[in-house]
Each structure stands twice: as structure tokens, then as C-alpha cells.
């Protein structure tokens, strides 16, 4: 009795199911979709995977992903070089860029301190950050990590580490998300919003 | 201001986002996962896609996917050749195989009648089914289509089409899903379960 698909299809389903956020049913759906899709579509996917693995590298300055190091942001003369925004992952750079409010530079740590997953400060790109602070150009570090336990721990660690330097170190405001509902805000978020209240 | 990623990463995100069930955030997550994954993992995915496109074909008898036609089920001498179970898609064959209750053959229509999507009987593999009924070997057709409007329409169509032939034509039972809750069953399912009630 055939309880798994013929070799090639099952291997494709397994490959997709091993990607984050895709379960066995979703992987099966994608495999059959690709099977029936025109060759150009599967070729485009294959080519995109190959291209990313061949071309994409990490910027030697900020640690962001790029196709030429230093990256387009680090080498852009119009960016404000006195401010560095520290984030966990390359995708966080994109989130902040989308606000169109920030004109400074970035530094990508590559994660956050997480003792449960055995990730300590030495596993993050913190040495690279300190090296960038060697000259006196940088005036402010904005720590923009995720508002969870790991992000908080890393923010505290960076705050202490940068304390001796003559720098303004700031963090993103905590509070109610815009468009949110007071009734559904959790207690911690609400008490942070209260503590950080501003004049109208 | 960089509002999209550098070329290669954005192309990979777009390629994944065009697959069914993957949204832009999921595609971004997968792209960064592949970027950091060992080369063997991305190579395995690329190879699996290539292999499926190169090797997998449709069985000339039943229309199921296979690597050699006729497929392993059609060419298995231990299967009961007097019964054909008609399904919409290759994945439905796998669902029925997983019950381990069915020992007959299959026929994959490749979809269901859907006037909204311009899919009529002639777009389905129905001619192939009739051809298989030319000899007198087949005694029963089990119509196992999805219990939705398209599946119902196709079941009705097949029922009428097969009526003149000397065949038992059956369909899957409708009723309460096992492990379900009477309170949450919809009215149509519950009335089908009532109509199809059986002696205890």
C-alpha cells in the first residue's frame, strides 16, 4: 500500500516541509502546484535560490545582507553617520526603513541574547559595533530590538556595555500599538504606556 | 531610502510569495532562512524541484502522478481491479490510501466542474474513465469527490453519465466527522447524518 508518494514528489514535499512556517499539508500543496506550473515558474524559483546563495553576502560594516560590501546604506553619503540603529535581523532594517522616518546607519546583531538557545553576547555581532564607535563620529545609538525577553536582555546588556562611552543610548518607546484597543492591551504594555505618557 | 531588498533577496521573496499558501512575511522568513542555511539544504531543495519537473509524469491509465506510467497502483497485480475510486486530485489518492481500507484502483479527474472558473466536464479526465469501463472487469465506481458545491455538481454529472452502464455507482457517506461535536456541526452536515442514520 502506498503511504508515501513516489520518490521525487515525496522528496520535494519533505524539502518544503523543512522550511520555516510550512507544514506537511502546505508542502504537499506547493509540491503539486509546482508540478503543474509551467517550467518557467519553477525555473524562476530555482534561479532565485541559486542567485541568493551565490550573490548575497553580509556587509562587513553593519552586518546587513547585501550584494556588495559595504552595503548600499553604509556607503550612501546622504545617510546621517552620527546615529546607528541596532537591530536583531536584516528584516528589521527593512521594517525601520519602511517608516521613512530614519536617516541614520544600522547595525545588525544577528540575533539576541538567549540562554535557552545557548546564544550569548559573543555569538552576536557586538565586537563589530564597538569597532564602529572607535572614531568620534557616532553620537547616538538607538537600540531597536524585539520587545520580548531576549530583546530586553540584550538591550540591558548593550546599555551597560555602552555606558562608559560618551554616547546617547536610546531605545524604542513601548506603548499601545496605533489602531489598537485599550481593552485588549495586556497589563505590561498598558503600564509601559502609562509610564511613558506624554503631554498632549 | 531602501524600501525593497537588494535585487536577489527581493526576487527570492517574490518567488516564494507566488507559491500557494505563502504570504509576503512567510516568504521573507523563508528567504532569510535559506540565506543562512548550509548550501546542502538549499541544494537539496533546488535538486528536489528539478527532479520533480524532470521525472514526474501523469499515469496514462488513472491520471495520478508517477515516475513511470502506468503508476505503481495501476500496475500492482494485488489491487482489486473491479473497483475504481474517482477522486479530484492526486493528493486525494494519498488521503484514501492512508485509511488502509481501500484495495481497488483510482481515477484522478484533475479537478471538479466549476462554472465560475470555467471548468466544464470536458476539462476533466472523464473520457479516460469511460475508456477504462469498456471492458466488463469494473463492477463498482466509488465517487470520492470533495463535499463542496463543485464536488456535488461533478458527482451528480458522473452519476447521470454512468447510469446507462451496468455498474454500481456509490459515493462517500456524509455525516458527522469522527471526534467532532454535535453542537458545532452545521445544519446540512447534521441533516445528512440524520438521513444516513444506521442501525446500532
TrEMBL record, chains A, B:
<keyword id="KW-0862">Zinc</keyword>
<dbReference type="InterPro" id="IPR006171">
    <property type="entry name" value="TOPRIM_dom"/>
</dbReference>
<dbReference type="InterPro" id="IPR023627">
    <property type="entry name" value="Rcmb_RecR"/>
</dbReference>
<feature type="zinc finger region" description="C4-type">
    <location>
        <begin position="59"/>
        <end position="74"/>
    </location>
</feature>
<keyword id="KW-0233">DNA recombination</keyword>
<dbReference type="GO" id="GO:0003677">
    <property type="term" value="F:DNA binding"/>
</dbReference>
<protein>
    <recommendedName>
        <fullName>Recombination protein RecR</fullName>
    </recommendedName>
</protein>
<keyword id="KW-0479">Metal-binding</keyword>
<dbReference type="GO" id="GO:0008270">
    <property type="term" value="F:zinc ion binding"/>
</dbReference>
<comment type="similarity">
    <text>Belongs to the RecR family.</text>
</comment>
<keyword id="KW-0234">DNA repair</keyword>
<dbReference type="Pfam" id="PF21176">
    <property type="entry name" value="RecR_HhH"/>
</dbReference>
<comment type="function">
    <text>May play a role in DNA repair. It seems to be involved in an RecBC-independent recombinational process of DNA repair. It may act with RecF and RecO.</text>
</comment>
<feature type="domain" description="Toprim">
    <location>
        <begin position="82"/>
        <end position="177"/>
    </location>
</feature>
<dbReference type="Pfam" id="PF21175">
    <property type="entry name" value="RecR_C"/>
</dbReference>
<dbReference type="GO" id="GO:0006281">
    <property type="term" value="P:DNA repair"/>
</dbReference>
<dbReference type="Pfam" id="PF02132">
    <property type="entry name" value="RecR_ZnF"/>
</dbReference>
<dbReference type="GO" id="GO:0006310">
    <property type="term" value="P:DNA recombination"/>
</dbReference>
<dbReference type="InterPro" id="IPR034137">
    <property type="entry name" value="TOPRIM_RecR"/>
</dbReference>
<keyword id="KW-0863">Zinc-finger</keyword>
<keyword id="KW-0227">DNA damage</keyword>
<dbReference type="InterPro" id="IPR000093">
    <property type="entry name" value="DNA_Rcmb_RecR"/>
</dbReference>
<dbReference type="Pfam" id="PF13662">
    <property type="entry name" value="Toprim_4"/>
</dbReference>
<dbReference type="InterPro" id="IPR015967">
    <property type="entry name" value="Rcmb_RecR_Znf"/>
</dbReference>
Amino acid at each position: 500500500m502506498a503511504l508515501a508518494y513516489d520518490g521525487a514528489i515525496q522528496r520535494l514535499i519533505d524539502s518544503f516541509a523543512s522550511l520555516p512556517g510550512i507544514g506537511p499539508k502546505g508542502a504537499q500543496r506547493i509540491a503539486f502546484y509546482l508540478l503543474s506550473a509551467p517550467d518557467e515558474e519553477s525555473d524562476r524559483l530555482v534561479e532565485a535560490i541559486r542567485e541568493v546563495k551565490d550573490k548575497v553576502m553580509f556587509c562587513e560594516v553593519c552586518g546587513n545582507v547585501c550584494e556588495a560590501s559595504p552595503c548600499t546604506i553604509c556607503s550612501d553619503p546622504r545617510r546621517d553617520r552620527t546615529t546607528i540603529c541596532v537591530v536583531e535581523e536584516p528584516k528589521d532594517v527593512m521594517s525601520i526603513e519602511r517608516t521613512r522616518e530614519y536617516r541614520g546607519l544600522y547595525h545588525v546583531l544577528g540575533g539576541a541574547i538567549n540562554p535557552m538557545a545557548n546564544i550569548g553576547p559573543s555569538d552576536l555581532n557586538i565586537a563589530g559595533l564597538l569597532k564602529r564607535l572607535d572614531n568620534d563620529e557616532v553620537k547616538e545609538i538607538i537600540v531597536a530590538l524585539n520587545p520580548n525577553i531576549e530583546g530586553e536582555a540584550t538591550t540591558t546588556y548593550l546599555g551597560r556595555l555602552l555606558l562608559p562611552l560618551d554616547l546617547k543610548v536610546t531605545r524604542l518607546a513601548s506603548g499601545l500599538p496605533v489602531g489598537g484597543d485599550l481593552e485588549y492591551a495586556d497589563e505590561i504594555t498598558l503600564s509601559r504606556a502609562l509610564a511613558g505618557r506624554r503631554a498632549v
